[in-house]
């Protein structure tokens, strides 16, 4: 995407440029909301033949560029969430493989022990010889002793039969565990490959975004920078408002504790795959971190987090509820409701962790969990 900058070659152009600079200082249209699903292909070109010269043209072109960046941000958010889900799935498979390996080792140990015991019994029978029925009858001093010896040898025979059955059962269990281990190993291998593909997709989308910003007309870039400063100021205002209103919010102690913990990290950088304050957060990483502080273990991924929550009506939101954006098949974004129509989110690279207005953002699901005070 290339935006060709045109110099002011006439007095009219110089006047237009001065007006544009004045417009930058005086302010312009606010940032638009995030767009819906991104286009599957690469972003369309924003080139034009002569370049914007008038203030309305500059503002219109800045809005177009901002919308394109928002589309790219949405694509990045989707790619990041897919990456997080793949990483979570790989972690689960790795844990399962460790459990299967441990269980298999235990079964193989029991199988070796059972085989050794049966072999020892067989060797003892071979060396000492086995008494037959007539030996027992004629060797017994009386009827009582004969019955006792018969019962003893019956128990030995039963034990031998049980040992064989145990060995057969353990052998079957070992075969099943080996087959399960191999199936999960192949699944982990495929998931690891998918994880690398998702990682590459995130990096590609980020590279496209950087290319858009790098190739911008300088005048339009100034307008976008002004809009970014305005958005940051609005986020700070909302964060301050949330802090002031926090004591008056209606909520349980644990709900307000969740909100306080989330608000602690306002201003932190957005880092895809991030789930720690020292690193930064992506959207589901922030939710995972805050809820982990309150006794709720969550996977790293908005869709997975939505599936483990209890859905609540959007009209009945309470502080600490998680709000999701997307569809039941795939939620690409998540934030935490604060109250009074506000929520805290790790919004994206231009924003970091901010407080935002929920209205108009396209929230499609809210979920409630069972946290406890730290």
Strands, helices and their partners?
Elements: H1 11-26, H2 55-128, H3 133-139, H4 143-214, H5 218-245, H6 253-263, E1 275-276, E2 280-281, H7 283-292, H8 302-307, E3 310-312, E4 322-327, E5 330-339, E6 342-348, E7 352-357, E8 365-368
Antiparallel strand pairs: 1-2, 3-8, 4-5, 4-8, 5-6, 6-7
Description:
This protein has 374 residues and is an alpha+beta fold. The chain has 3 domains: 82 residues, no CATH class; 119 residues; 142 residues, endopeptidase domain like (from Nostoc punctiforme) (endopeptidase fold (from Nostoc punctiforme)). The chain is built from 8 helices and 8 strands; from the N terminus they run ααααααββααββββββ. The strands form 2 sheets. Strands 3-8-4-5-6-7 form a 6-stranded antiparallel beta sheet. A hairpin with a 3-residue loop joins strand 6 and strand 7. Helix 2 packs antiparallel against helix 4 and helix 3 crosses helix 4. The chain is elongated, with a radius of gyration of 34 Å.
Entry keywords:
single chain; 374 residues; alpha+beta; endopeptidase fold (from Nostoc punctiforme); 3 domains; six-stranded antiparallel β-sheet; 8 helices; 8 strands; 60% helix; 11% strand; disordered N terminus
Short summary:
The protein has 374 residues and is of the alpha+beta class. Helices cover 60% and strands 11% of the residues.
Helical proportion?
55-70%
* CATH topology (fold) name of the largest domain: endopeptidase fold (from Nostoc punctiforme)
Order of helices and strands: HHHHHHEEHHEEEEEE
Judged by helices, strands and strand pairing, the structural class is alpha+beta
What is the CATH architecture descriptor of the largest domain? Alpha-Beta Complex
Shape: elongated
Q: Largest beta sheet, briefly?
A: 6 strands, antiparallel
End-to-end separation in angstroms reads 50 Å
CATH superfamily of the largest domain: endopeptidase domain like (from Nostoc punctiforme)
Q: Figure out the total of helices.
A: 8
Radius of gyration: 34 Å
CATH level-1 class of the largest domain: Alpha Beta
Stretches with pLDDT under 50, minimum 5 residues? 1-50, 125-138
| Count of domain modules | 3
- Fraction in beta strands: 5-15%
Strands ordered across the widest β-sheet: 3-8-4-5-6-7
Mean pLDDT: 74
């Amino acid at each position: 995407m290339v935006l060709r900058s045109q110099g002011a070659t006439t007095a009219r152009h110089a006047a237009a440029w001065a007006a544009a600079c004045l417009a930058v200082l005086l302010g312009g249209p606010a940032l638009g909301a995030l767009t819906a699903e991104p286009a599957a292909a690469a972003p369309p070109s924003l080139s034009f033949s002569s370049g914007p010269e008038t203030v309305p043209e500059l503002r219109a072109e800045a809005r177009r560029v901002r919308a394109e960046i928002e589309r790219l941000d949405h694509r990045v958010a989707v790619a990041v969430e897919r990456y997080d889900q793949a990483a979570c799935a790989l972690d689960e498979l790795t844990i399962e493989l460790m459990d299967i390996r441990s269980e298999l080792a235990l079964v193989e140990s029991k199988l070796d022990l059972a085989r050794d015991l049966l072999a020892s019994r067989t060797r003892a029978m071979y060396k000492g010889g086995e008494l037959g029925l007539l030996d027992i009858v004629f060797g017994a001093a009386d009827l009582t002793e004969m019955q006792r010896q018969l019962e003893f040898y019956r128990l030995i025979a039963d034990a031998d039969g049980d040992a064989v059955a145990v060995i057969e059962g353990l052998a079957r269990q070992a075969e099943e565990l080996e087959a399960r281990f191999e199936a999960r190993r192949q699944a982990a291998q495929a998931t690891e490959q998918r994880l690398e593909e998702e990682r590459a997709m995130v990096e590609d989308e980020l590279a496209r975004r950087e290319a858009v910003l790098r190739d911008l007309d300088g005048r339009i870039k100034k307008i976008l920078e002004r809009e970014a400063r305005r958005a940051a100021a609005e986020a700070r205002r909302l964060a301050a408002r949330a802090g002031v209103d926090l004591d008056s919010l209606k909520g349980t102690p644990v709900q307000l504790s969740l909100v306080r913990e989330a608000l602690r990290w306002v201003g932190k950088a957005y880092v895809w795959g991030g789930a720690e304050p020292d690193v930064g957060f992506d959207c589901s990483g922030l939710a995972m971190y805050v809820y982990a502080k309150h006794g709720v273990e969550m996977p790293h991924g908005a869709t997975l987090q939505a599936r483990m929550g209890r859905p609540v009506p959007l009209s009945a939101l309470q502080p600490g509820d998680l709000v999701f954006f997307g569809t039941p098949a795939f939620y690409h974004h998540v934030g935490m409701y604060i109250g009074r129509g506000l929520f805290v989110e790790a919004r994206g690279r231009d924003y970091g962790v901010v407080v935002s207005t929920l209205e108009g953002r396209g929230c499609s699901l809210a979920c409630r969990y069972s946290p406890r005070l730290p």
